[in-house]
Amino acid sequence: MKIRKLMNIWKAVAENKSFVHPLDKPLLPEPNDCFPLLRRVPEPWTGDPTKASIFHLTSHPRHGPNDGNQDEKDREFWWSTMASTADSKDWEDHTSEDELNWSKKNYGKFLEDPRFIPNLCNLRLVAYPCSSMRDMDSISKDAAHTLHTTKRMRAFVHRQLVPAAREGKCLLLVMKAPGDWGFANPEFGDSKEDRWDKGLFISRSGLQHSPITPGSRVGPAIQKWLDSLPA
User: Fold this and answer.
1) Residues 130-179 pLDDT 10s
2) Are 56 and 151 in contact (CB under 8 A)?
3) 188 with 202: CB under 8 angstroms?
4) Given strand 45-46, what is the order of strands in its sheet?
5) Mean pLDDT to the nearest integer, 73-94
6) In whole angstroms, what is the distance from residue 216 CA to residue 211 CA?
7) I need a surface site. Which of 28, 37, 84, 227 has the fewest CB within 10 A?
8) What pTM was estimated for this model as a whole?
9) What whole-number distance in Å separates Cα of residue 115 and Cα of residue 227?
């Protein structure tokens, strides 16, 4: 897998410590209370994609009143995440109350396995956070097909991660918005059913909550993967 192709999408934003990709800016609303581009750093992924072997695809970062990514330290963390210089200890130090609750809900007891977080990368199709879920949902509906960064993220997944997963080199878990991620065509089977193709899992469409806990649809496969990793 050529992970550097993924990193290159956000390289300029990380290096310049900016809040929006220059090619996305003309397509996004002006900063306002619902879409505060000037106060939050994009979050295209959590985890370190250069070290991960489990890739978890979701639609976009969601935020509540107790979330971070607003003060200088949090901003530095997210820029370093884009540059792949942050580690799991940094993630623990900068996890907000909302993010911790989201992680507990979506990962469950996998969080207690020391192999899990270092091997996990959650890729977001739309990287821009927003304080309002409703407004972010409406933006994502259009942004998923128009933003420069979403097009490149989707291309990376299909050109790099899908072949690797089908060869058993990683787990690729398409848990949210499979259609927006480009998995709605007949090549990937019936969108009304869950689908496995070796290391590639595509969730059926229309689910609002798709956790990857030990008891979830993908839990046994994740556990098997973790058990296969070097001690």
Assistant:
1) 654 455 544 545 666 788 899 999 999 999 999 999 999 999 999 888 88
2) no
3) yes
4) 45-46, 120-124, 54-58, 171-174, 200-202, 195-197
5) 79
6) 6
7) 227
8) 0.88
9) 9
Q: What angle do CA 164, 165, 166 make, to 5 degrees?
A: 90
* Residue 72, Cβ density class (10 Å: 0-12 exposed, 13-18 middle, ≥19 buried): exposed
Which residues, 6+ apart, have CB-to-CB distance to 10 below 8 Å? Answer: 21, 42, 44, 82, 127, 149
Query: Do 172 and 185 meet the contact criterion of CB atoms below 8 Å apart?
Result: no
Tokens of residue 110, six digits: 């996998």
Q: Give the dihedral of Cα atoms 87, 58, 110, 211; nearest 10 deg.
A: 160
Residues 6+ away with beta carbon under 8 Å from 32: none
Read off the pLDDT of residues 35-68 as tens digits, 9 standing for 90 and up: 555 567 888 998 899 999 999 998 877 665 555 5
Q: How many CB atoms lie within 10 A of CB 85?
A: 12
Among 1-10, 124-133, 162-171, name the one with the lowest average pLDDT.
Answer: 124-133
